[in-house]
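Per reviewer request, we include the raw input and output of the structure prediction for the construct analysed in the revised manuscript.
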Amino acid sequence: MTEHPGAITMKGNPLTLVGKLPEVGQAAPDFEVLDNNLTPVRLSSFKGKICIITSVPSLDTPICDIETRRFNTEAAKLNADVVILTISMDLPFAQKRWCGASGIETVITLSDHRNAEFGAAFGMIIKELRLLARAVFVIDKNGIIRLVQLVKEVAQEPDYAAVLAAVKQLA
């Protein structure tokens, strides 16, 4: 698998991403992850919806917490044809606990811990940590990637305005 040394940083320290980052205009690669009840979920099951996929290192960290809460708030303002999937390497049990404690009801949290299919397909695996990099992907109703936003510094939040603008253009 392709490695990209120094593709991102964590608190200024360079990290290596593994896999190929998909590009705007490409079909989104399909993958299987687990929901909070250990049920397998495929990206292809959301075809016909606009998908915002947020990739985060761990919901139990401050920036991931802020980001997921923000997208949960924004989700209430979006068209019913939009789904927000937040994917991490956290165990489904931890995700379920975190969602319950945080009042997350609109964002769908999914775990890539088992096979790292999402991480490999989207080039998001941080080699040194076996966590996912922080990124946001917007995928249209036909499964085509319309926005790729890799956050270069893991300790920073994504550009919410750019993500929401891309979604509004598709809705």
